[in-house]
Amino acid sequence: MRIVTYLNTTEEEIFAKKFNIVVGISLGNKDFKRELVRSYLLWAIENTKEKVLVLIPDKIHSVNYEIKNGYKKERACKLSAREGKKVEEMVKDILDEFTPEKRSIVQYQNGNKLKRMNINEWSQFSMTSLKIMRSLIMK
């Protein structure tokens, strides 16, 4: 796998394993099939500082269902939670193929359970995400 664009970092910093890597798996992206997710996970494991966090943004995706499909909030939440669970199961299955050493590096969380990230890490992650979003919107 080759990353073409780096946001707020450089290729050199990634290959120097300067950061822990967060991989987001969008529920609305049909390209996230098993082999692509597997490739992302392997790439992240090979290039992370210590840990990899896989985010499955099911709560965010429920808003897409409300806005784009006109679903009521309850229906949208149930559907996105179900889809998030499927992705979570796929990630678990893929991780079962890896060695225990590689498996121990990866943590995965759906949108409701950002357990192991402490508040400072989450704040930094949130602020960086907002900066990226703003820069893309303001173009």
Summarize the structure.
GO terms for molecular function: aminoacyltransferase activity. The chain contains 6 helices and 3 strands, in the order H-E-H-E-H-H-H-E-H.
Protein described:
The structure is a single chain. The chain has 139 residues and is mostly helical. It has a single domain, classed as Rossmann fold. It is built from six helices and three strands. Strand 1 (21-24), helix 2 and strand 2 (52-56) form a beta-alpha-beta unit. The two termini are 28 Å apart. The model is unreliable at 112-119 (pLDDT under 50). GO terms for molecular function: aminoacyltransferase activity. This is Cyclodipeptide synthase.
Topology:
Layout: H1 11-15, E1 21-24, H2 34-47, E2 52-56, H3 58-69, H4 73-96, H5 100-105, E3 106-110, H6 119-137
Parallel strand pairs: 1-2, 2-3
Helix pairs in contact: 3-4
Descriptive labels:
139 residues, mainly alpha, Rossmann fold, 3-stranded parallel β-sheet, 6 helices, 3 strands, 58% helix, globular
Number of domains: 1
The SS-based structural class is mainly alpha
- Summed up, the helix count is 6
Any idea of the CATH class?
A: Alpha Beta
Number of strands: 3
Poorly predicted runs: 112-119
Strand portion, in percent? 5-15%
- Report the radius of gyration as a whole number of Å: 16 Å
Element-level helix/strand string: HEHEHHHEH
GO molecular function: aminoacyltransferase activity
Keywords: Transferase
Organism: Candidatus Falkowbacteria bacterium RIFOXYC2_FULL_48_21
Family: Belongs to the CDPS family.
